[in-house]
From TrEMBL:
Residues 50-132 form the Cytochrome c-552/4 domain. Pfam families: Cytochrome_C554. It comes from Nannocystis pusilla. PROSITE patterns: PROKAR_LIPOPROTEIN. This is Multiheme c-type cytochrome. Gene3D superfamilies: Flavocytochrome C3, Chain A. It comes from the Bacteria. The lineage of its organism: Bacteria, Pseudomonadati, Myxococcota, Polyangia, Nannocystales.
Length: 359
């Protein structure tokens, strides 16, 4: 599933969705992905459930994936609602061209559309046939694939068995991506320091994925950061960065060089013309990314002061953490009830220790 997913993901940035609301009465359209008149018939597509009758495992995997929730995700709906308001419905097909290509091309997504009135196939979001009925790619961004409902089911099986349900055909250009994620390493410059001196820590984070950034996709929604906690010989925290503050946001450290006060962020933010962070992509003028490129590596240097009375050894632990949304974003969307359900995933962890010599 990775390849098509990545194509869709890459394009998110190509499109940006930036700019400011236009005064024109025209609604945003595109002959291929946001047509003014339907180019496919909704009833030309089968539901995932029907595919699941034979492809049980694929159905199970799909139904818990982000693709299945592309249209029902409350955060997505909240973003769309705000955008409908900002643009008076004139750009309603923009987000939907990817989140429900079938519904958008099938004529269901019209200016001012209402989620409550959509057909089940549209609400299936990125369903089986929005990928397996792709005949070709017209452009590598913004839902640039050509959907052919009447065509064969395209997949990777070189000589698919004959099936009563559908014709099958191989897509030779589907490349497999390597699975993997980021890895963190924490090391000390010196294995022992005098109490009262500064301990230099090197935190290296590495993207093991060859195909895309870490994190990837809508990184301005995502949060990926490094947490570093240093404890003394009495297990007291003497230094921390990336731990959560009262609002649930990762704290910066006042002593995290090179950029003093910088938190070790790996995601990205959107900013407006004045450089202020903004939540809504279409209000942003710039995307400032800290993501790690494919197979990229970054080294952060942390300077941890100690006191003359400190007892060693110091133990330092670094973790790469990831979560789907920031609590601030959910609150701004009026989705406070989801804040406590946000899960933080540990991507990688490493630790090291430093001896303290008498001053
Ligand atoms: C986001 C696009 C996407 C969606 C949605 C999707 N698939 Fe796939 N599917 C793929 C890709 C890409 C492959 C090729 C496998 C690979 O490269 O790992 C694939 C492979 C397959 C195969 C071939 C056997 C195999 O595992 O390689 C079958 C069968 C299949 N999918 C069925 C389904 C069914 C049924 C659904 C819905 C329940 C579905 N797919 C949803 C993209 C998708
Ligand atoms: C009646 C059973 C049945 C149903 C229903 C069914 N399929 Fe299949 N499908 C098959 C068989 C059999 C194959 C060949 C598998 C093989 O060769 O290992 C296949 C192959 C595929 C392939 C691989 C094609 C290739 O050339 O690599 C894809 C993709 C696929 N099906 C998707 C779907 C989707 C999407 C649906 C729902 C719209 C669906 N199938 C419904 C039986 C079914
Ligand atoms: C070019 C295709 C494309 C367009 C256009 C697009 N998205 Fe997405 N969207 C994606 C993909 C792919 C993902 C999954 C990427 C990921 O997991 O980071 C995604 C994920 C999301 C998520 C995260 C869903 C979750 O629960 O994790 C939200 C929210 C979202 N999009 C909102 C929007 C909004 C709002 C718009 C319109 C302003 C939009 N998208 C336009 C492709 C697109």
């Amino acid at each position: 599933m990775k390849t098509l997913h990545t194509i869709l993901t890459l394009v998110l940035f190509a499109c940006g969705g930036g700019g400011s609301p236009s005064d024109s009465d025209e609604f945003l359209s595109d002959a291929l992905s946001m047509p003014r008149e339907p180019t496919v018939a909704l009833d030309g597509f089968a539901s995932a459930e029907q595919c699941g009758l034979c492809h049980e495992a694929h159905y199970r995997e799909w139904s818990t994936s982000g693709h299945a929730y592309a249209m029902s995700d409350p955060v997505f709906r909240a973003f769309v609602a705000v955008r409908q308001e900002h643009y008076g419905g004139k750009q309603d097909m923009f987000c939907l061209q990817c989140h429900s290509p079938i519904g958008t091309r099938g004529g269901e997504i019209v200016p001012g559309f209402d989620f409550a009135e959509l057909q089940p196939i549209t609400l299936e979001g990125v369903t089986c046939e929005s990928c397996h009925k792709v005949a070709s790619l017209a452009r590598p961004y913004n839902s640039g694939h050509v959907l052919e409902p009447g065509g064969p089911m395209r997949g990777t099986i070189a000589e698919p068995a004959v099936s009563a349900a559908h014709e099958s055909s191989v897509r030779a250009d589907v490349k497999r991506l390597l699975a993997g994620a980021a890895r963190v390493d924490i090391a000390t410059v010196a294995t022992s320091v005098r109490a009262g001196d500064v301990v230099d820590l090197l935190v290296t984070v590495e993207n093991n994925i060859s195909g895309h950034n870490f994190p990837t996709g809508s990184t301005f929604n995502r949060q990926a950061w490094i947490e570093v906690v240093v404890r003394d010989g009495d297990d007291r925290i003497v230094f921390a960065t990336g731990t959560l503050d009262a609002s649930g946001e990762p704290r910066g450290s006042s002593r995290a060089g090179p950029g003093e006060g910088e938190i070790l962020r790996l995601g990205s933010i959107l900013v407006d013309a004045r450089g202020e962070p903004v939540l809504f992509p279409w209000r942003a003028t710039e995307h400032v990314s800290n993501a790690l490129g494919p197979l990229g590596e970054r080294v952060f240097r942390l300077r941890v002061p100690t006191t003359r009375a400190a007892r060693g050894p110091l133990s330092a632990e670094a973790r790469v953490l990831f979560r789907a949304f920031s609590p601030t974003a959910l609150r701004a969307l009026g989705l406070d009830e989801y804040v406590t359900r946000l899960e933080i995933h540990e991507v990688s962890r490493d630790r090291t220790s430093v001896e303290l010599r008498p001053p």
